[in-house]
């Protein structure tokens, strides 16, 4: 079951293209935690490119962007480098974080496309899913941050 608005965001520790990170390391900042199915696929590429293009806007709103997929760390590193993602892309091949947030895809092998907007205290303030275009998650996340 997907983590709901008002819930405490589950903490995690994982490897990313920026080294080991914990969600709790970002206490005091807002976090946009986006789950995506697979690096280098068309929708995930457009979504990550747009997060990269808009990254400064997120930083202006005291927010960090973190992407998570079931890809291995080597794929996340290549994906981040190719599309200039200045934010952490987390490798979750064991699906621990994906399962903790309730976003396992129907195939059971990857994440569904879901974005969580988390406040400074670690509380989920928005859950974005079911959009027609992957890159719309970026606009909706910015809207949610601006309304907080």
Description:
By secondary structure, the chain is an alpha/beta fold. It has a single domain (13-146), classed as Glutaredoxin (3-Layer(aba) Sandwich). The chain has helices at residues 42-53, 55-60, 73-82, 96-100, 136-146; strands at residues 13-16, 19-22, 30-35, 63-69, 89-91, 114-118, 124-129. The strands form two sheets. It has a five-stranded mixed sheet. The longest helix is centred in the N-terminal third of the chain and has 12 residues, at 42-53. The two termini are 25 Å apart.
Q: Key features?
A:
24% strand, globular, five-stranded mixed beta sheet, 148 residues, 5 helices, alpha/beta, single chain, two-stranded antiparallel ribbon, Glutaredoxin
Q: Specify the structural class.
A: alpha/beta
How much of the sequence lies in strands comes to: 15-25%
Strand order of the largest sheet: 5-4-3-6-7
CATH architecture: 3-Layer(aba) Sandwich
Task: Give a nutshell description of this structure.
Helices cover 30% and strands 24% of the residues. It has five helices and seven strands, in the order βββααβαβαββα.
């Amino acid at each position: 079951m997907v983590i709901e608005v008002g819930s405490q965001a589950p903490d995690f520790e994982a490897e990313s293209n920026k080294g080991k990170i914990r969600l709790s390391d970002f206490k005091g900042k807002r976090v946009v935690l986006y789950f995506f199915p697979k690096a280098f696929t068309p929708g995930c590429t457009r979504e990550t490119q747009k997060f990269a293009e808009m990254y400064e806007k997120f930083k202006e709103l005291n927010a960090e962007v973190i992407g998570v997929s079931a890809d291995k760390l080597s794929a996340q590193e290549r994906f981040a480098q190719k599309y200039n993602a200045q934010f952490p892309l987390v490798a979750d091949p064991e699906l621990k974080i994906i399962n903790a947030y309730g976003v396992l895809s129907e195939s059971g092998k990857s994440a569904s496309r879901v974005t969580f907007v988390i406040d400074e205290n670690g509380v989920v303030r928005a859950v974005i899913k079911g959009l027609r275009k992957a890159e719309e998650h970026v606009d909706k996340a910015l809207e949610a941050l601006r309304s907080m």
